[in-house]
Structures are given as C-alpha cells and as structure tokens.
Amino acid sequence: MTSKFIVLQVFINQGYRSVCHYHAEIDHSIAKNDDSRKKSTGVYKPVGESCAPEELRRLIPKKKPSSIEVLEGAVEWPEKGPTQTSNGLTMDDLLKFYRKVDGWYFLTCGCLLDDVLLDFYIWKAQQYIPSMYGHETPFGTPMEPRVRTWLFAFLKSEMDICVDNLYAYDEDGVYRSWERRSVIQIKNIWHSLERKAARSMVLDVLNLKEKGADLEPWEWSDKDRKSEQEARKALQREWEKASKEEREREEQRRKELEEEDAWMDGGKEEDGERKKRKKKKKKSREEDEGEGKEKKKKKKKRKASRSPSPSDPSGSRPKKRKSD
Predict the structure, then answer these.
(1) Domain termination residue (choose one: 159, 176, 193)
(2) What is the pLDDT of residue 305?
(3) Residue 312: band (very low, low, confident or very high) from pLDDT cuts 50, 70, 90
(4) Where is this region: Disordered (predicted)?
(5) Burial of 203 (0-12, 13-18, 19+ CB in 10 A)
(6) What torsion do the CA atoms of 270, 271, 273, 278 make, to the nearest 10 degrees?
(7) Are 61 and 132 contained in the same domain?
(8) Is 138 strand, coil or helix?
C-alpha cells in the first residue's frame, strides 16, 4: 500500500458518503450497530447523509473510472507522494467526509476509520489465502465488523500496530522504505513491551545510539533504495523457489494418492472377482440341485407306474399267450 491520502478517496461513494468494504458489499442497511442492538457489533451509530460541506462535494467526481491509465514517464515509487488531488482536495478536505467524534474519525456507515484503514491495508497486502500445497484462493467476503474490531483491538493493544506507519508515503508525501517502516513497527512493539514491563529496556540499534555517541539520523538514499530493490528481488526468488518446492511436493503427494487409489481399486476388483466366482458356484450348485430334484421326480414317476393297480392286487401282469 502506498498512501493514506489515496485510500481515503476509495471509501467516498457517489452519494458523497464514506462507506467501508463490508457495508458496500454485504450489509447495505447497516441494521447491526451498537445504537440498535446495545451490543459490541463493531459498528457505531450510522448517519444517512454526507457530513462534508457542499463546496467539497462538488469536487468529488460523480463516477469513478474502473481503471486509471498510467501516464508516460510515470515511475512506480516517486520520490514525493501525493498530497492533493488534481482539483485541489487536500488530506484535511478528504477527512471532512468522515465524521469526527471525541477525536476519532468514523465513516458514515458507523465504522471506525482506523479499523477500516487497517482492514483495507491487510486486504491489499494479502488478497489471497495461501495453501501449503501452493494453491491460492481469493479472500472473498469482507471481514465482518465485529470480528474486525476484535482482531484489530488485539493487534493495537498487544503489538502497538499503527496503520499510519504502514504506508510507504506519510501524510506529507515523504517516502519511507520497507526497512524504515519495519524499524518503526519494531520500535512500537518494543515500547509496548517496555510499558508492560514497567521499566526502561535498552534497544541501542533501533534507538540509533552507540556507546554514548549519537548516530546521524537514518535517511533514505539511492543506495538504500537499491538495497531495498535487491532485497525485494531476493524475497521474490525465495517465494518462487518455495512455491516450486510446494508444487513438487503436491505433485508427489498426488501421485501417491493416485497409486493408493489404484491399489484400492485393484483390491475392489479382486473382491468383485471373488464375488462373481462365488455367485457362479452358487448358481451351478442350484442348477445341480434342480437337476437332482428333476431326476428324483422322474424316478418317483417310474416307481409309481410299476406299483400294483387296484384291479390287480397281486401286481402280476397278464402273460402273453404263445401263438398256436
């Protein structure tokens, strides 16, 4: 992410209201809020109208383009970041589209601006959910405000995360390298630990001190910029290598699963053959039994035909006379 000044413009919609990602995509009615539920919903009392004055509303375009053409000669990381729009809107002007209560800024949808900025920063920095097998799927549905508030309360209280320190350009448009921002975050965490320990803890490197001699303030230079680019490239190579190794492991695992499935299918085929043979034997046995029954019936018939009739109890047959 580059600049808070740019992000503040993202949440201002065509009705000149400031609405977070969740309420723009999911809950348009903003029915769940602390004012209606008397609970911790992560959403405070929403307001229906824009809180910006009319003269500033006129400077907001009625329609935002889906994409912006890169101008000729533009660089990815300019030395000076944006501090005002092409029609003169400054940071203070943009903040007037956000409601201020007791020193805190809220969007008109009722969400705390600080939470929404951190949510958007994390989403832009990590839009996909990675898998150990190298797959990536989009994060999808925006984080529900109650979960968002709970998670970010932990990050702020335990790790002293400040979203303003995460952007590459500060409010004055001054560029801060990735290393510099990391140092700021580490110092914040360290100070948080000091508060919890209730005593001073020495951290010479981050406090820029060395055995009684103060070091010169750390400034961004071409050498630092080059080092950062090299570090980014090295990190990218590591990611690509790790991703390749994960894909190879996944391919190996897939082959193992296929072999296992084939073995299981082979076992099923053997079971099927055994069942067929068993069925065939049973059928053959039934046929043999059927033939045996038929033979018994015929034998019984023959016996019945030989048995004496009522007219001839002796059972003797009349003898044939010899011809004279």
Answers:
(1) 176
(2) 66
(3) low
(4) 220-324
(5) middle
(6) 140
(7) yes
(8) strand
